[in-house]
Amino acid sequence: MSNTQTAGRKSQWLLLILLVLVAAGGSAAGMYFLLGNKGQAAAAPAPEPQEIPEPIFVAVKPFTVNLRSEQDEERLLYIGISLKVENQESEQFLQKYMPEVRSRLLTLLTGKTAAELMTPDGKQQLSAKIIEVLRQPMALQQPELRLTDVLYTEFIVQ
């Protein structure tokens, strides 16, 4: 081989090595900026989680109700419920007016049959009706009653 051919091959190898080094440097710089931005995003303060309010429940003492008869048979419902409210004002109002709350519940339940109350759908409909009945005003200066759910703690039909 001649000297010019050897010099040409060396320059090709040098050019190839130079290209590999430039590509490696470019990759390293790209990774630095990518990881550097992620590191800064992770270091930024995370938004504070919103505080979830504690649930407020108003317990209604269990009671027994005679159900409406379909075929001259006596049926009883033993029921205990808790009312879920959104604020303490609603809780205090319901506790203060508990005798009227119980009276409205008794009146509502005595109009039901055992067959209506035995199905899950019947219980859901009853929950909606209880909320509707209790949202009707009980006093002249009544705050807005923030009643959100009816929870059955005891439910026996005989």
Could you characterize the architecture of this molecule?
The protein folds into two domains: 1-52; 56-157, 2-Layer Sandwich (Tetrahydropterin Synthase, Chain A), CATH 3.30.479. Helix content is 53%, strand content 20%. It is an alpha+beta fold and 158 residues long. It is built from five helices and three strands, in the order H-E-E-H-H-H-H-E. The model has no long low-confidence stretch (mean pLDDT 85). Strands 1-2-3 form a three-stranded antiparallel β-sheet. Helix 3 packs across helix 5 (120-135). It is a single-pass membrane protein. It is found in: Cell inner membrane; Cell membrane. InterPro entries: FliL. Keywords: Cell inner membrane, Cell membrane, Cell projection, Chemotaxis, Cilium, Flagellar rotation, Flagellum, Membrane, Transmembrane, Transmembrane helix.
Topology order in helix (H) and strand (E) letters: HEEHHHHE
CATH superfamily of the largest domain: Band 7 domain
The strand count comes to 3
CATH architecture of the largest domain: 2-Layer Sandwich
Largest sheet: 3 strands, antiparallel
* CATH overall fold name of the largest domain: Tetrahydropterin Synthase, Chain A
Low-confidence stretches: none
Whole-Å distance between the termini?
A: 109 Å
Proportion of strand residues: 15-25%
How many separate helices? 5
Estimate the helix proportion, in percent. Answer: 40-55%
**Estimated radius of gyration:** 37 Å
Shape call? rod-shaped
Mean of all residue-level pLDDT scores: 85
Helix- and strand-based class?
alpha+beta
Membrane topology: Single-pass membrane protein
Main location: membrane
Function: Controls the rotational direction of flagella during chemotaxis.
Family: Belongs to the FliL family.
